[in-house]
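[Help] Beginner question about ligand-bound structures

Sorry if this is basic. My supervisor gave me a protein sequence and a SMILES string for 2-acetamido-2-deoxy-beta-D-glucopyranose and asked me to "get the holo structure". I don't really know what that means in practice or what format the answer should be in. Inputs are pasted below exactly as I got them.
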Amino acid sequence: MRYRLLSAFVASATIVLAADPAVYDYIVVGSGPGGGPLAADLARAGFSTLLIEAGGDEGDNPTYSELYTFNEAANDEATRWDFWVKHSDDPVRDLKFHHTTWDTGDGTFYVGLDPPEDAKLLGIQYPRAAVLGGCAMHNAGVCSLPQDDDWNIIVNKTGDTSWEASKMRKYLERIEKNEYLATGVEGHGYDGYLATSRGDASWVKDETNPATKIFKKMAELTGLDPNKVVEYADGDILAADEPKDFTNAFYNMVQHGGRDGKRASPNNYIRATLADPKKYPLTVKLQTLVTKVLFNTTGTVPQAIGVEIMEGASLYRADPKHKAGTKGPVSQIYAKKEVIVSGGAFNTPQILKLSGVGPKEELAKFNISLVKDLPGVGANLGDNYEGSILALANSPIASGLITLLFRTPTAPTKKRNIFTWCGSFSFEGFWPGFPTDYGPKQYECALVHMAPKSQAGTVTLRSADPQDVPEINFRFFENGGEEDLKELVDAANIMREAWQAAGDPALPFEELHPCPGPQGATRGANCTEEVQKEYFKTQAYSHHATSSAAIGADDDPMAVLDSKFRVRGINGLRVVDASAFPVVPGAFPSLPTMMLSAKAAEVILAEFGIVPS
Ligand SMILES: Cc1cc2nc3c(=O)[nH]c(=O)nc-3n(C[C@H](O)[C@H](O)[C@H](O)COP(=O)(O)OP(=O)(O)OC[C@H]3O[C@@H](n4cnc5c(N)ncnc54)[C@H](O)[C@@H]3O)c2cc1C
Ligand SMILES: *[C@@H]1O[C@H](CO)[C@@H](O)[C@H](O)[C@H]1NC(C)=O
Ligand SMILES: *[C@@H]1O[C@H](CO)[C@@H](O)[C@H](O)[C@H]1NC(C)=O
Ligand SMILES: *[C@@H]1O[C@H](CO)[C@@H](O)[C@H](O)[C@H]1NC(C)=O
Ligand SMILES: *[C@@H]1O[C@H](CO)[C@@H](O)[C@H](O)[C@H]1NC(C)=O
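Answer (accepted):
No worries, everyone starts somewhere. Holo just means with the ligand present. The predicted complex, written as structure tokens, is below.
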């Protein structure tokens, strides 16, 4: 990003490089889609910025720099942080999750529901990446925009109209380097750090391909024109000009990666900023765990003045390489202007709580001295529900991916609620060694619920030890659960019906789940709504956690941030990452978080009269 100074006077008065190298203007904690681009933007605008990241830099490691190896990346011990999460308060229900993971005690995991005698229950794996670039370095790079109301709700809550969906578009334009459309398409960007590309959809032209037949039937079942599938397959999911949220539509899947297959992420942007001949004042400190934010509490309002760090690799116990008892040297680093916490939806609330910012009772339990009672820290955790309908076809189906965003009949609003993509793959959630491979005949429609109603999840401390992993309970389906389950079942039923159009030799499909067995056009007695609801209730998985330190209204005691990302009741402290979204931002949070990060840069720099050019 480039910057233009609104007033040379203001700029020369405020942009001073830190004289003492151990004191920075800004300290940013965490280099993912939230913190990484923000730190680069602040440095590019002339502010001395320290970016602290617990992991290392794998930008030159092909497992990470190539996008198609994303499953290997998410399994890789080089960066993996294992969070063993709960999906509910009911241990019996959670123990029905087929890929429940156990520690056998001999350095291996057992995955399944019949563990060896002495195995210790770990829970449901939720992998995250501790690495320069955060989870954008191991994710699948799938791009979609939030629903407009996911931005607009911030306007409603805070009165800050700069969050209107139409005004958020410019951040996509600013960060994108579009490689799949002709240059100059309105609403897209072509010189940002984030390459976007998509695959070849020409397979759809083959009318004999069973996947094309399925695609046509999906169109028919969702009110679209089966004769237009070739046109639909070219649909741009990031387009500015479509009446998006209220229209069922197909798209060719877009990923944050280049046409050369290379992953695009904050890692590229940070490295480009460091390598730039303009010598921007960015310092990156890797393999450093931030243990807390430091405050000056002598005034009436606490002021964030720096962070405490512990230096070393694999210090956090979520890291499978962590060795019990390992610690590193502890020291303090100071910020003249602000500390920005961007540790992601699990670590941001943990860092705030360890620093004394969070629910009073919880902090008291661990003898953490209270800086600011903010009961919303670690609450409101949300995530997309994901599940799938998976089968073995009678013969392999070769095709690209079909992506469809559509509304199921009972969705509470007129907005579409399900993002699905179908093809010959298997994705059933996370466990050490995921995914399963059922061979060339596997065929799946993955289902993402875009507007989950629950958001009753929590991130709570287990101890005051910053090397400890907090307890994470998503409380799936706690609010509006029956409705969301019904919507997932309806989506699965539509996909199953579409499959019956695949024709010979692909049919019949032997379904693996939710309804095991040969399911024809009329579902067997085993495939009731109840059976399928139970399946999704116990087997839904997630990896898009957000909203655990959310922006909210002035009069909402659960609000953690104001509309300028400032932690309420504290000076010099912001949160910029996926934790800030009040509601789950559509089906895929990575791109929305990078847009939010670009907005944060603009908001912060505006205070110095600097506007992005
Ligand atoms: C397996 C997987 C696949 C996914 N696939 C997709 C996808 O296809 N499309 C999509 O849109 N989204 C996907 N996501 C989600 C997406 O990647 C995340 O929502 C996004 O990365 C969130 O960005 P963030 O900046 O909030 O947090 P993160 O990306 O988690 O970044 C936080 C960073 O902070 C660092 N950190 C944390 N605590 C500390 C500390 N105490 N001290 C120092 N550093 C710290 C971490 O090491 C990490 O690098 C996927 C996620 C996972 C886990
Ligand atoms: C915002 O508030 C208006 C007026 O109350 C309401 O009609 C609209 O649905 C709200 N939008 C969101 C996204 O909450
Ligand atoms: C702490 O804040 C007080 C009052 O706001 C100020 O006078 C003092 O200089 C600050 N101390 C530090 C170490 O920043
Ligand atoms: C908190 O402090 C009290 C009093 O010093 C002590 O008894 C208690 O064990 C401490 N609790 C924790 C969790 O450290
Ligand atoms: C229905 O379930 C029964 C009992 O679990 C099983 O034996 C049978 O094969 C199933 N039928 C189908 C069509 O899946």
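A couple of things worth pointing out: Residues 3-61+142-166+262-381+545-612 form a domain with the FAD/NAD(P)-binding domain fold (CATH 3.50.50.60). The first strand starts at residue 3 and ends at 5. Feel free to follow up in the thread.
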